[in-house]
Amino acid sequence: MQMPAIPPDRPVLGQDLPILAARLNRTPAECCALLGISQSSWSAWKKREDQPIPSSTVALAIRLYDCFPELAPREPTPEELHGLLNQVTGQTVPYTRLAALLGRERTSGYRWTQRGRPSLPVSRLIGAVQRLLLTRFTTGLHEYEQMVAREATARGIVDLFQEGSWVPEKD
User: Fold this and answer.
1) Helix spans in 76-119 (H)
2) Is 141 inside a domain boundary?
């Protein structure tokens, strides 16, 4: 157990929310998802920095993650998904394909690996795709690629994997 950043001799306060976010290296939005609270609750509680968190359940979760940050589930990174895609396919998957599989433009895959995290919706999708690949392997990848292609076609995108763009071509 790590030394807690939140003092154990007082209730969890609004001022402890940024401490939790920093300790877990998460954004406030990610902390809200982790704790199961709305962003408006986070903001309101943070503003009342010297007041106890109203929910004892949330306060206990904050204390738990403060003491054991490794327990906080996290979505895999784009690099981790890319590595898994390479394993499942037996070849190096281009970053442009990674981006297309995640509903983003072709340069996003490379950009994620060089600087910056993807958005929260992309992170959640990465986690879901990783779980699909870990449970269904190549079959799951093929099913997902078909799903992606169908969505692209329904949006008027002729060949997403060739073009690498989720923006339909203008006539």
Assistant:
1) 78-89, 95-101, 108-114
2) yes
Burial of 1 (0-12, 13-18, 19+ CB in 10 A): exposed
pLDDT at 21 over 70: yes
Integer Cα distance of 30 and 154 in angstroms:
31
d(CA 87, CA 134): 11
What is the distance, to the nearest Å, from the Cα of residue 114 to the centroid of all Cα atoms in its chain? 17
Q: Are residues 91 and 155 in the same domain?
A: yes
Distance from C-alpha of 146 to C-alpha of 142, rounded to nearest angstrom = 6
| Ramachandran bin of 103, using left for φ above 0, alpha for ψ from -120 to 50, beta for the remaining angles | left
Distance (Å, rounded) from C-alpha 22 to C-alpha 28? 9
Other CB atoms within a 10 A radius of the CB of residue 63 amount to 18
- Separation of alpha carbons 62 and 88, rounded Å: 37
* pLDDT value of position 171: 62
Domain assignment of residue 22, given as a range = 16-71
CB 96 within 8 A of CB 145: no
